[in-house]
Amino acid sequence: MGTTDKDTQAIIEIRDAVKVFQEQRALAGVNLSVAKGEVVLIIGPSGSGKSTLLRSINRLEHLSSGSIRVADIEVCAANADIRRLREEVGMVFQNFNLFPHLNVLDNICLSPINVKKIGKNEAREQGRSLLAKVGLSEKEYSFPDQLSGGQQQRVAIARALAMHPKIMLFDEPTSALDPEMVKEVLDVMLDLAREGMTMVVVSHEMGFAKAAADRVIFMDAGLVVETGSPRELFDKPKEERTRKFLDNILH
Amino acid sequence: MSQPVTIVIADGTLIPERGNKGVFSAWRIALIGAIGLLIVVPLINTAEVQSFVHTLWLQVFPSSTPNPVLERIADGSYRNYYWNALKFVPDGLIITFQVTLLSIACATVIGLFAGLGQISRNTLINRVSTVYVEVIRGIPLIVQLFYIYYSLGQLLRTEGVLAAVAALSICYGAYIGEIFRAGIQSISRGQMEAALALGMTRRQAFRFIILPQTVRVILPALGNELIAMLKDSSLVSIVALPDLMTRGRQYTSQSFAYFETFTMVALLYLVMTLFLSRLVGIMEERLQKRGRK
What we know:
The complex is a heterodimer of chains A (251) and B (293).
Chain A: H1 6-9, E1 10-21, E2 24-35, E3 39-43, H2 50-57, E4 65-70, E5 73-74, H3 82-88, E6 89-92, H4 104-114, H5 120-133, H6 149-161, E7 167-171, H7 182-194, E8 198-202, H8 206-212, E9 215-220, E10 223-228, H9 230-235, H10 240-250
Helix pairs in contact in A: 4-5, 4-6, 5-6, 6-7
Chain B: H1 21-44, H2 47-60, H3 68-74, H4 81-88, H5 90-119, H6 123-137, H7 141-156, H8 160-186, H9 189-197, H10 202-232, H11 244-255, H12 258-291
Helix pairs in contact in B: 1-12, 4-12, 5-6, 5-8, 5-10, 5-11, 6-8, 7-8, 8-10, 9-10, 10-12, 11-12
């Protein structure tokens, strides 16, 4: 999984990313490249810009300056092919954001049918196999509000995978979950990582980081403060700010 | 998952749902009472019953003045005005229905665009629709009706049903626009973001994700508007449209039986609005059920 020559294989390339919200600098010049198949975990205090960075990758946020390249797409270009970008990049949200008026299977099939224009039967077949993959085969006709948080998040992951993305973004996927449901979601994410999916995860789940992450990035005040392997960063952080933050979240 | 949002319009009709016992039984009492009166009063108000009532009355108050009803019964000019009023107005009922249904359809379309316009990021569209809503909501419906019928009517040569439907739709479009705006804005931002992240265009996201959820949220409010529209359609009688109210007035102008006629007209309106409010209640119950079957 770990790649030495990241520049040639980088699938995400972020250069000097700056994002200003009402005079506040959410991102203050971030450089980051992610190799194909790499799993990167981003940690940092709230307001450090980690979610903004993640949301910039599929252009839910538009950078104030700087550039992002995903595969061969210049994300910030005026003529960027946004639709193709979002097919390449799947996203999972903190609050799941399942569509409450559609059942589980329709949640998964809606975009493949209407965006990718694949046939209904094919989409449903694929939807069923994705549901099997996240362990929810028996729930295809349930509605989101009948599912637990963990089940909803697993459906959300299946829904994102239905577009066959090359990259998956996870924005605090377990923060809204009751503790006993965290594991079922992390297990699905671990499976994905083992299959070689490129993943950028904003999360403070140390266990997941140690089991699956190639790199952990600590962000603060809109900047990347420190980067390292999970072991390096968690056990021997070099920066004072990193150490302070880790002290706080470990207790 | 976010809690389902309901919009409460304070001055609207109460929507009877099975879950809401108080409103539901009030609705039932009103409906049974109205239908009962509509049937019973014209049936029993025959000359015989009237004279019987007055005989009783004279027993209790012997000093009363001679009874005009008895005189009219004696010379054969007595009429059952309740019954006659009821026979006189049904074609007005049809016009009332036509105007209401046409207007609610047009007003919903106008309202959808007004609501979308108000949240549009295009400044021009946004201003136009917001000003439309503000201006229309500031003018009484009856003034709008006069305006469209007499002023615009001269320019565009509109009349009758068309003028009535135009005035009602333009007026209600503004209110329904507000309902759509509030409904759309009540859908959490995450829904739009999830749809965009799945590769949908804003238009697709709106059609597949936002609008279906909006409809569910605004249905009670929209039902209220439909009922209010039915009632306000009585104002179109001023533009000489032979609706239920006009027909009632026509009947009183020849019979002078104001009490009897407007009792019947009022009961007919009441029965219609009660049926409609239950219909809206049933739709709501269905939608809620489908959400969590």
